Amino acid sequence: MKKMNKFALTGLAAGVALAAMSSTAQAQEQWTMTTTWPDNLDLIQIDRHWVELVNHLVGDELTIEFRAGGTLMPGTEVFDATQTGSIEAAGDWPGYWAGYSPAFSPLATTTSLFNGVDYLNWIMEWGGFDLYQEVYGDYNMVYLPYGITNNESGFRGGTPIESIADLEGKRLRLSGRDQGRVLEELGGSQVTLAGGEIYQAIERGVVDGAEFSTPGVDYKAGFSEVADYWSVPGWHQSASVFGVMINQEAWDALSEETQETLKIAAEATMAWSLAWSERESTEGTVKFKEDGTEINQLSEEDLAEIQEITNNVIVQGACEDPMHAKVYHSMISYMEHYANWRDISVPYNMSRVTDNLPSLEEIEACM
């Protein structure tokens, strides 16, 4: 009996030791994560919020070491680095990768379509999350959307843009393939510049105007110092999404519990980011006004024309790429479905109301 008890205790001790070793092995999971944003651009706060939340919630199972954009590699290289596993994760804005697939563009932003609440609804309840996994999955990555900002500021520059007629012949810094196509239809030309180059481009007259982000981010980037005029609203990016790319092998090495914790942290950060950015946008707008920035509002007629051009550009892009079509089909289906409740809840509705959407039938014909 003593021998049996001794054997049982020995077996128990071995089991405890094995469990401890497994726990230690799990605790040794360490990720290196960077982002597309340098320290001087306020969008990095969204990345930091998620990392801090994960490191707090996960405990000993995973530690993420976060490095600001540009400290490990140029921001343009984080996609390849995450795909290949050189780093485990990177914060991004999906639109930067539209050269790999045009489907990344609507995953990042839309022209005159979704607002921030639309992205939140669509990602969490109307199938959007799965489409991020499908698009990024083709590049050996898992994607967790964790940031949403509402519509961007608009164009800032040294000359006023009071109507879409004033866009004729203007050279404007603008991100996004669809956005550039709409601008071209309006008579302007798209100039591609990194965020860190915009200030000097406006100051030196290299561009007639530029967009970048929300008023809070724009103000902290110093644009009030070089741009006297501000054209609103930001129709070119009616909302934006940010998130974290995670190498597939690094993700698979995590326990299901830890994976779920990362998802929960992403959802919490996404809700926080929308409120945070709206507060920052409000305070930034106040500061631009105090600095004497002249704000020019486009008319309803101008916005209606932009919507019409946008609808055509969306259909055109959908017919060029099946995945691009699939993403937009899902987005427009959401807007049509949600309209059943949204439109009768005006003026207390939580989303954008429009009676002029891109044609689902035309998109379906290209799928």
TrEMBL record:
The keyword Manganese does not apply. Residues 1-27 form the signal peptide. The keyword Metal-binding applies. Transmembrane segments: none annotated. Na(+) binds at residue 212. Pfam families: DctP. One of its GO terms (biological process) is transmembrane transport. GO terms for cellular component: tripartite ATP-independent periplasmic transporter complex. GO terms for molecular function: metal ion binding. InterPro entries: DctP_fam (IPR018389), SBP_TakP-like (IPR026289), TRAP_DctP_sf (IPR038404). Substrate binds at residues 152, 173, 211, 237. Keywords: Metal-binding, Signal. Coiled coil: none annotated. This is Monocarboxylate 2-oxoacid-binding periplasmic protein. It comes from Halomonas lysinitropha.
